[in-house]
Write a structure and sequence with these properties.
The protein is an alpha+beta fold. It has two domains: about 45 residues, no CATH class; about 60 residues, no CATH class. The protein has three helices and five strands. Strand 1 and strand 2 form a beta hairpin.
Length: about 120
């Protein structure tokens, strides 16, 4: 829960359901109200359905599949560190990295995960 300066509940729910908690804190410190699901006088602590209105790039995830994919990618990236041609190519680059980000959301209501991968590569 987030409590406003008057001691009233401004938000009930999981913090992951808020887009920008830091901005929410600033808003409450200015004495303003929050808006959106879980806010206001009738704030409900309901979890949104993870499948409803999927954010851009999100899809339903199979956690065993995610684990398997991470293991596969780990092996690929490990191979890069031993590939002489790759090592030689990377020597002339200012930077060479790969960052795989998995953003996930869970709905206790449905028991399902949604998520998306962002693969940031600079080679």
């Amino acid at each position: 829960m987030l409590i406003d300066k008057q001691g009233k509940i401004a938000f009930k729910g999981h913090p992951a359901n808020r887009e920008d908690l830091e901005n929410d804190f600033d808003t409450l410190l200015r004495g303003e109200s929050l808006s959106g699901e879980g806010c206001g006088a009738g704030a409900k602590a309901e979890e949104p359905d993870a499948k409803a209105d999927l954010p851009k790039g999100f899809k339903e995830l199979d956690m065993a599949g995610v684990s398997s994919e991470i293991d596969t990618l780990h092996a690929v990236f490990e191979g890069f560190t031993k590939d002489e041609e790759m090592i030689k190519s990377a020597e002339t680059l200012q930077r060479a990295f790969c960052v795989l980000v998995l953003e996930m959301r869970y709905s206790p209501k449905t028991g399902s995960f949604i998520g998306k991968y962002d693969n940031h590569r600079v080679l």
